[in-house]
């Protein structure tokens, strides 16, 4: 159901584009054989803005590509194995990276660091060599650290452009919309919640006071809602009982972000998505990467929106967010620079 809605939404948007929307766009998915990569690739196959889909993984990507290629939409799909990442990336204008190991019960995103950090560093080196001008969307956890890792590799290679590097935090917004809508008995499409900060635990800060449907949520109900938004991933990990983490919802969120970025690349104005980028908002406090609403444009980041007016509760959430976020970012930077 969500796939068909996504396709209809994308098609409707595409009809309203100028001729620039017909530009050929190659999208590469690194980690396409995994739990996030497969459903996200399926959704990208249905996106009319994607003309070429390159699916890469150390195992399974050619099979996923063969399967998805039978879907009767116009885009071409090719799969690439462990030894052919160069071909997957050549000519890519957008690279989405869900590669890495998933969380298991009892694991935090930081527990994933050592394994996923190495994977992301290797993929960053490949992207720097084969598609240095591509837009990069990173899903691999822990995002608060993997995005800085990617940036540091690019800096060492001399190809870093902060406007083209994004941490995909869209799932936090998707969850916020769904969870608040459940409380209010509303359709989630009518509930839009701004979420700022990072992409793990207390670094996730939903700004409910800025949402008409959320400003009157108070007391214990407010605390429970914020906790569910911040730790929604744990809910899924527990429910899957060791079989994985949030893959389907993250696949949906990743495809939504990719569609928004492609629309902006094609010249559509006013495209705003939450995303973790190099940001001036809290740089004075040593936090150089921060998620907020970002207006996207043909060259990537066009305008970083301020967090706006905060409630007393949200100011406390920001205070709790910043120290953790600073540590996460420093951990990623140190991983590359101490190697």
UniProtKB/TrEMBL annotation:
The active site is at residue 199. It is an enzyme of class 1 (oxidoreductase). Substrate binds at residues 103, 109, 141, 175. InterPro entries: L-lactate/malate_DH, Lactate/malate_DH_C, Lactate/malate_DH_N, Lactate_DH/Glyco_Ohase_4_C, Malate_DH_AS, Malate_DH_type1, NAD(P)-bd_dom_sf. One of its GO terms (biological process) is tricarboxylic acid cycle. The keyword Oxidoreductase applies. GO terms for molecular function: L-malate dehydrogenase (NAD+) activity. Residues 26-167 form the Lactate/malate dehydrogenase N-terminal domain. Residues 169-335 form the Lactate/malate dehydrogenase C-terminal domain. GO terms for cellular component: mitochondrion. Its EC number is 1.1.1.37. It comes from the Eukaryota. Keywords: NAD, Oxidoreductase, Tricarboxylic acid cycle. NAD(+) binds at residues 31-37, 57, 116, 139-141, 250. Belongs to the LDH/MDH superfamily. MDH type 1 family. This is Malate dehydrogenase. The lineage of its organism: Eukaryota, Fungi, Dikarya, Basidiomycota, Agaricomycotina.
């Amino acid at each position: 159901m969500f796939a068909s809605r996504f396709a209809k939404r994308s098609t409707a948007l595409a009809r309203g584009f100028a001729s620039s929307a017909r530009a050929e766009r190659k999208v590469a998915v690194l980690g396409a054989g995994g739990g996030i990569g497969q459903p996200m690739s399926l959704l990208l196959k249905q996106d009319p803005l994607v003309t070429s889909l390159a699916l890469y993984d150390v195992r399974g990507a050619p099979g996923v590509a063969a399967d998805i290629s039978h879907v009767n939409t116009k885009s071409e799909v090719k799969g690439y194995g462990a030894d052919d990442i160069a071909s997957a990336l050549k000519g890519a204008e957008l690279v989405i990276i869900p590669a890495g190991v998933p969380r298991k019960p009892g694991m935090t995103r930081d527990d994933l660091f050592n394994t996923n950090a190495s994977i992301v560093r290797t993929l960053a080196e490949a992207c720097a060599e084969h598609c240095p001008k591509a837009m990069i969307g990173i899903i691999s956890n822990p995002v608060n650290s993997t995005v800085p890792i990617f940036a540091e590799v690019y800096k060492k290679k001399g190809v870093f452009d902060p406007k083209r590097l994004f941490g995909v935090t869209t799932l936090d917004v998707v969850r916020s919309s769904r969870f608040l809508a459940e409380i209010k008995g509303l359709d989630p499409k009518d509930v839009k919640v701004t979420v700022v900060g990072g992409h793990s635990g207390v670094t996730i800060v939903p700004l409910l006071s800025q949402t008409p449907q959320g400003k009157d949520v108070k007391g214990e109900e407010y605390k429970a809602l914020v906790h569910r938004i911040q730790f929604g991933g744990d809910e899924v990990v527990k429910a899957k009982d060791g079989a994985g983490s949030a893959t389907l919802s993250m696949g949906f969120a990743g495809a939504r972000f990719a569609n928004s970025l492609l629309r902006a690349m094609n010249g559509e104005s006013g495209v705003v998505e939450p995303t973790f980028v190099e940001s001036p908002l809290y740089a004075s406090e040593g936090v150089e990467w921060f998620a907020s609403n970002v207006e996207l444009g043909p060259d990537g980041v066009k305008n970083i929106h301020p967090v706006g007016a905060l409630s007393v509760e949200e100011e406390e959430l920001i205070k709790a967010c910043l120290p953790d976020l600073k540590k996460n970012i420093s951990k990623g930077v140190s991983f590359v620079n101490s190697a």
